[in-house]
Amino acid sequence: MIFEAGWAIRRGGRFLAASVMLLTVAASPALMAPAQAAQEDQQVSDFFLGNGMEVVVIPDHRAPIVTHMVWYKVGSADEPPGKSGIAHFFEHLMFKGTTNHRAGEFGAKIAEIGGSENAFTSYDYTAFFQTVTPDALETMMSFESDRMRNLILTDAVIGPERDVILEERRSRIESSPDALLSEEVQATLFQNHPYRIPVIGWMHEMEKLNRTEAIDFYNRYYAPNNAVLVVAGDVDAATVRAMAEKTYGRVARGPDLPPRIRPTEPEQNTKRTVTLTDARVSVPSFSKGWVVPSYNRAQPGEAEALDLLSEILGGGTQSRLYQALVVKAGIASGAGAYFDGTALDDTSFTVYGSPLGETGLEKLEAAVDAEIVNVATKGVTDSELEKAKNRYVRSMIFARDKQSSMANMYGSTLTTGGTVQEIQQWPDKIRAVTADQVRAVAAKYLKPEISVTGYLLPAQAASTPPADEVPPTDVGATDGETGKPGPAEAAPAKTPPAN
User: Fold this and answer.
1) CA distance 338 to 9
2) Which position has the higher pLDDT, 483 or 356?
3) How many helices (H) and strands (E) does the chain have?
4) Is the dihedral of CA 221, 303, 232, 495 positive or negative?
5) Could you identify which of 22, 362, 372, 428 might form a hypothetical disulfide with 466, taking C-beta atoms 3.0 to 4.6 angstroms apart as the criterion?
C-alpha cells in the first residue's frame, strides 16, 4: 500500500492525520464518558531493547484484540537518486519467503486465526501490521522479527514482484487523471526535496529495480535499531517486553545510520500552475498548495496554528469555505483544506474546490482566495477558534477508542521526529493557540505569489484556462500516482500510500 500521512483522511496534522477522521460534531457528556475513561486507562509505556529497537505499549483491555505494528524509519524520500519506488518495492518483498518460513506461511497463519494484516509505505516510513487475539501476539512477533533479517531474495522472487508494482502504478496512476495531476502538482510544489517524487516511483526507474539494489536497501534499513514496535490492545507492558526480548531482541543490531538529512527547498518566489485536461473528467476541480513547516520543522506554536487554520478554513461542513461557497453562495459542490503536519521535513498546506453547475473555476477560485485573504488580514473569531480547538481535542479522545488509531498515531509520530511526550502534550498545545497565531501563519505562508495551483479540466474546457492564469504545463491524459484530487468533495492529494 502506498501511504502518505493524511492521504486517506487529509486532515488532522501530526497526531491524527494518519489514523483518525476528525469529528466535526459536538460530543455530549454521555458520548464523551466512555472515551474519556479509555483515555485515562491507557498508561503508555515506551522502552528500548538492547539492540536499539524502540517499543511502545498502549494497553486497552476492553476487548481481546491486539494490534501489532512494526514501523521502519525509511520511506520513499530516503531512496537513492534514480531508484524511485524501491521503498515500496521492498514493502512487497517483505511478504516473500525467509530461511525459516516459506512464502505465504505468515499470511496463512494470520488467516487461520481470523486475524488481518497489511502494510504501507510513505515518504518517511514503512509499516507492517497485524490485528489478532492476544494469544497470537508472540507468534506475530516471531514471524515479523524473522523477516526483518532472513528474507530469501533471488532473481526468481524479484522479477515477478517488480511486475506487480509496475501494474499497480498502471492501475492506480496511469489510469487516473486525478492521480496524474496530483503527481505533477507535487513535483512542481517541491522543487528540490525528494517529496517531489511519487512514493510508488517513476515508471522508467521502477522498471530497472533489481536484486542487488533490493538487498542493499534491506541490509541498510531493515534492522531493529531503525524500527519502532507499537503494540496496542489487550496487553500489558511486562508481557510485551518479555515477548519482544525473546523475538526481536535476538535480531542483531544493524548499521548505525546517520541522521536523515535531505535536500531542502530553495526560496520559492513564483506562482506556478499545472493543468491536466482529459475526456474522462466530468467535473472540473482545482487545488492550490504551499510549502509550509511540519510539526518536526515548525517554530513553537506554528504547526498547531496551521492545524487549526486548516480546520477553520476548510476542515468540514462547519468550515468557512464550505459554509461560504457550498451552503450560502451555492457555487461549489465541495471545498476544503488540509495540512499534512505529519512529515519529517517541510510539508504542504492545500485548499481545493469543485464548482457547482455552470459556475466556472475562475469564480470559485477567486472566492477561495478571498476567504484566505480575509483570514490573513482580519484573522479568525474567538468563537470559531474555540470550536475548532474543541473538535481537535475531542478527536484525540475518540482516537483512543480504537487501538489501531492509537498505534498509527504513535508510530507515525515516532518515525517523523516526534516523541511520546509530544503526543501526550498535543491537546494542551492546541488549546494554547491564539487567534493572532492563526492569522499570522495564514499571512506568512499562504501567499498567492508563491502558490502552486492544479487544474483538472474536461477535454472540452482545454481552451479556456481559468482567470489570467496561463498554465505552463499541460500534462495531457496520462496519470500520476498521487492520490485523490478531483470531483465533488474529494480532496486533492500528494503521493498516496502503497500496498
Assistant:
1) 9
2) 356
3) 17, 12
4) negative
5) 362
| Residues 437-472: tens digit of each pLDDT | 999 999 999 999 999 999 999 987 544 444 444 333
State the pairing for strand pair 54-59/227-233.
parallel
Distance, in Å, from the CA atom of 130 to the CA atom of 115, rounded to the nearest integer, reads: 7
Q: 3-state SS of 81-120?
A: CCCCCHHHHHHHHCCCCECCCCCCHHHHHHHHCCCEEEEE
Greater confidence, 402 or 128? 128
Rounded distance, CA 292 to CA 299, Å?
A: 11
Contact 480, 182 (CB under 8 A): yes
* Rounded Cα–Cα distance for residues 224 and 249 (Å): 8
CATH of domain 1-499: 3.30.830.10
Active site residue ranges: 91
Q: Rounded to the nearest 10 degrees, what angle do helices 211-221 and 155-169 cross at? A: 90
Q: Is the dihedral of CA 220, 223, 228, 233 positive or negative?
A: positive
| pLDDT tens per residue, range 276-312 | 999 999 999 999 999 999 999 999 999 999 999 999 9
